[in-house]
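Hello everyone,

My group is preparing for a crystallization screen and wants a predicted model to guide construct design. The compound we'll soak is NAP. Before spending weeks at the bench, it would help to have a computed complex in hand. I've included the protein sequence and the ligand's SMILES below. Output in structure-token form would be ideal because that's what our pipeline reads.
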Amino acid sequence: MRFHQKAVIVTGGSKGIGEGCSRVFCREGGLVAILARGEEAGARLANELTEQGPGRAVYIACDVSQPQQLMDAIDRTVQEFGRLDCIINNAGWHPAATRIDDTSLEDLDSLFRLNFVSTFVGCKHALPHLRKTKGTIVNMASMVGILGQDKAVAYCSTKAAQIGLTKALAVELGPEGVRVNAILPGNVDTPMMHEWAATLPNPKSALQRVASLQVFGRMATSEEIGRIALFLATDDSSFLTGQAIEAEGGASLDY
Ligand SMILES: NC(=O)c1ccc[n+]([C@@H]2O[C@H](COP(=O)([O-])OP(=O)(O)OC[C@H]3O[C@@H](n4cnc5c(N)ncnc54)[C@H](OP(=O)(O)O)[C@@H]3O)[C@@H](O)[C@H]2O)c1
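Reply:
Good plan to model first. Here are the tokens for the complex, ready for your pipeline.
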């Protein structure tokens, strides 16, 4: 067990990539705090994972776009588990394709609050606890933070900001032994991916097209991303910090 009796916070840990992380860490003996808004999915997953063991999971209601709620949830996690070894700042959202002309300042501001400010608050408020354990931070950014994406100026900007935060914070915290890395998923088979496809005229062919972009001819599973998060959270990656791990199944190759 690679995370035995160690504690991790997974924001957005109830579905999609976050669910994959929660499952992988619990399977490795971890104590997992699942932060999300929806109680039904969060509590159901926490119960299921605790029953399966060998780790233990709790659901904590939290809207990460509300900084006070996120700070309270981090405090509750430490009360529950008595320690914190990793925070995975994963909760986020990709709006439907929108040109810059139709992207209001309010839209930009609220997406930054959800995708980026939450990452900043998560890092900052978890840090006093992570210093004690020489823990790690994993930020879920995206390939489009470095590649760009059509009609996604706001989203790409939030993801690029997460990468900048990751690198700067890694420099700052290196001497204290706290490592900070980002994962840049390409296309992952999650509820959000299916919600995006449903906004298009032919969802099935859109999903097939997205799957064909990777050299494997398929999207990543959430647990494949979860296993990368586990690698970044353990001593297996002890010499990695400030890295933006491109988890894209070769989609950006063969240019
Ligand atoms: N899927 C991909 O292909 C892909 C690619 C690159 C990067 N990413 C990034 O990976 C992360 C996860 O994406 P996903 O595809 O797994 O999304 P998803 O399937 O929509 O799952 C999102 C999770 O986050 C939670 N969440 C959403 N808004 C929240 C909020 N305000 N406060 C707390 N929790 C919230 C959701 O639960 P509730 O709704 O109940 O709160 C859910 O557990 C995002 O940051 C996304 O940008 C995804």
